[in-house]
Hints:
Blueprint: H1 2-14, E1 16-21, H2 52-60, E2 69-74, H3 78-84, E3 93-96, H4 102-116, E4 121-126, E5 130-131, H5 134-149, E6 154-158, E7 169-177, E8 180-187, H6 192-201, E9 204-214, H7 215-225, H8 227-238, H9 244-254, H10 260-263, E10 272-276, E11 280-281, H11 286-292, E12 301-302, E13 309-312, E14 318-321, E15 329-332, E16 337-341, E17 346-350, H12 357-366
Parallel strand pairs: 1-2, 1-4, 2-3, 6-10, 12-14, 13-15, 14-16
Antiparallel strand pairs: 4-9, 5-11, 6-9, 7-8, 7-9, 8-10, 16-17
Helix pairs in contact: 4-7, 4-8, 7-8, 8-9
Amino acid sequence: MAARRADDTLGAMAQAYAVILAGGSGTRFWPESRRARPKQLQALAPRSQSSLLAQTVERLESVCPPERMLVATSRDLLPAMRAELPALPAEAFLGEPIARNTAPAIAWATSEIAERDPDAIVIVLPSDHAVEDPTEFRAVVHTAIESARDGVITTIGIRPTRPDTGFGYIEVGGEIARGVHEAIRFVEKPSVERAREYVAGGRHLWNAGMFFFRARQLLDEVSQRLPKLAAGLMNLRRTPSTERARAVEELFAHTESISIDFGIMEKLSKMHVVPGSFGWSDLGSWQTAWELADKDGRGNALGPGEGAALVLDGSGNLVRNSAHQPKLIALLGVSDLCVVHTDDVILVLPRERAQDVRSVVAELERRNARDLL
């Protein structure tokens, strides 16, 4: 029995394809994250010099090889993505002409996979998250693949470590199989009080945006729930390769902007969830970067740029000195700040206002300061 189960797992791995979502702009990590090199192309995870995107691919290499990976990104980022992932074939990169949220991107990539194998098991992962324990992550992924292999769309839910209001949650039901539970419903970002109830109750997980399904199954759901998108995909599949670029333009021009959660996942009559604890973070802001970073005895996170930062009589500061020719950044008598130095920008703000970095980007856009975006 154990040998047969192992053979089944190997078979599922042989059918696994990965879709990596890499189209975000990452404005909350400005000024390191820019339009030409957004968050997913930056080395923002602690104790790593690799970009978040490269780390995502590396975590998946034992699950599926590069020839079974697709990267969904914006058309403008295609050269940078290909340069970042030279091991992936050129056809692995799908360039969206217009941002239309996650449902069109995932459906397009799944349609491409279905042309090769309609029964393929598709793994959908964001490209801009950090994982501290990749071995445990892969174990959870294997469990989710087995669940999807049995015909039920599956997600991974993160066991919450705090009552965070920045995440959506998944309400968890009974255990279906070892490590696999019924997903009762998705819950929108809650109030602080409700988030505390969720963590205390132990029946809610963070929604990390990771999904597993048979290719044919997801496309059937798209046909039922997003008919315009399904029609565009059908037109794309019928279009000769020499005219595919035009068909992609039409697909994204005429489909609505909608998330896979709202468009498909929240409407499913049956769904499974695999709880996971592998040191996950969505790296949502400079505050999160400070939380994950190595710190000195007073809670100061001084990196990258060893020796290029000095804090006296201060605590809880984040200093990132990522300029090619960094100058010393010295902080005296201040606490709980974020200081980010790049070649052309110095950003200073209270850590508690890390989410507001987007307002700086919006003001630069209003001023048409394109060289700083």
